[in-house]
Design brief:
By secondary structure, this protein is of the alpha/beta class. It is 17% helix and 29% strand.
């Protein structure tokens, strides 16, 4: 994401750019230990060992079509059917001149030196067939044409996608070795928030951050432990630290709210009481200025700004980098380039802005539509946002068609 600031590992930073926070997170979050999981639980995980073919792929000569197998050296166009082979059958035999075998797609060829004539090119007359056309192709998937036994087909470090999992299944790798998922503890603070199903009283708002955090983590297969903690430092410490194993086993701690500098904003003190060393106390990002980043051993903690749009930005830029680091995914964010679909009045802000946007491909190019938002508490843009436009500080107006950088908020580019 551009030029990384120097001295990011020197210690405490009172105010850090997005680049500096990312560099700190990448430096601190290393891949967690590996574990074996069933294929059904491996989607999106990072493979920690190479996987090779246990046998030739395919393991035997098989028909690529429905049709009839005949000798390749036959010159006649009339044959007698002597057997039928379906997928899964194993019926080796040597065909004699004038003999043919009906065979289904995927069926094992009965011997060598054969050709399969497609069903569409065969006219049946009882047990006899006559070829109406005979192409030069043999219509056979030959043993080992895809891969030879021992050949590595899935490399160490591969992110397991649906197609990859299908390949692993075909190779008999039913429990791949992958990086374990991080254990995440999320605590939402704020006396004003109530559950989404509850009608707020005056002075109250529905809690959107807990749903946002849970849904964001779910994209990576992570199920967080979630708590509601009171807006009281001692009570919050007791809730998060009891039982001690909850916080002690967490790889990632997320605290929603209380990260600013108000009288009741105690996130920094709470993190220090829990044994974390605060590395960043605020950022130059917009939205997302009151972001706290802390570390305890290998574990990371983020004090997230209470406003939901700021939550969205910090999750997709900073927390995502931690998840990538813990998983072993490439640490560089998915910065892409595109063009603006409409003019953008960026406001010449003194801070770098991550502007919610909607991107789509048009004629092979990424086209970005900036979305309207009025403040970091405005959730309305998130109805359709799937990207964050990176707008440099001081940028006043970007015209339609201008080249821009953006980060996709989709989980796997």
């Amino acid at each position: 994401m551009g030029c990384i600031e120097s001295n990011v590992s020197a210690g405490f930073q009172p105010s850090a750019s997005a680049d500096a926070v990312l560099a700190l997170v990448r430096e601190s979050c290393r891949p967690l230990e590996p574990e074996r999981v069933p294929l059904r639980d491996a989607l999106g995980r990072v493979l920690r060992e190479p996987v090779g073919a246990p046998e030739d792929q395919p393991p035997f000569d098989r028909s690529a079509v429905d049709g009839c197998a005949i000798r390749l050296d036959e010159s006649s166009n009339q044959f007698r059917i002597v057997d039928e082979i379906r997928a899964g059958d194993w019926k080796p035999r040597q065909l004699r001149p004038g003999e043919a075998v009906r065979i289904a797609t995927g069926g094992a060829l009965p011997g060598d030196g054969l050709q399969v004539v497609m069903k569409e090119d065969v006219q049946a007359e009882g047990a006899l067939i006559r070829l109406t056309r005979r192409e030069a192709g043999r219509n056979i998937r030959f043993r080992g044409e895809d891969a030879r036994a021992g050949q590595v087909l899935v490399e160490n470090g591969t992110i397991l996608q649906p197609g990859t999992l299908g390949l692993l299944a075909s190779l008999g790798c039913a429990r791949p070795l992958v990086t374990r998922l991080p254990r995440v503890l999320h605590a939402a603070t704020g006396n004003e928030i109530v559950p989404p199903e509850q009608t707020p009283q005056r002075g109250q708002i529905r809690d959107s951050n807990s749903t946002l955090v849970r849904a964001f983590l779910k994209q990576w297969g992570v199920e967080p432990t979630q708590l509601r903690v009171p807006e009281d430092e001692a009570a919050a410490k007791s809730a998060i630290g009891n039982p001690p194993s909850t916080i002690d086993s967490a790889d990632l701690l997320l605290l929603s709210g209380g990260a600013s500098v108000g009288e009741h904003d105690f996130t920094r003190r709470l993190l220090e009481d829990l044994g974390f060393v605060v590395r960043v106390s605020k950022t130059t990002m917009r939205p997302g200025k009151p972001l706290i980043v802390a570390q305890r051993g290998h574990a990371m903690a983020f004090g997230l700004p209470g406003n939901p749009l700021a939550h969205f930005v910090c999750l997709n830029i900073c927390v995502r980098a931690a998840l990538d680091g813990f998983s072993g995914r490439p640490s560089e964010p998915s910065v892409q380039r595109g063009v603006l679909a409409a003019d953008l009045d960026a406001g010449a802000n003194v801070r770098e802005t991550f502007w919610p946007a909607r991107w789509q491909l048009r004629d092979g190019a990424a086209v970005l539509t900036p979305l309207r938002w009025s403040s970091s508490g405005d959730l309305t843009a998130l109805a359709s946002a799937n990207a964050l436009l990176r707008v440099a500080r001081g940028a006043a107006r970007l015209a339609q068609g201008s080249p821009v950088e953006f980060i996709s908020t989709l989980p796997f580019p």
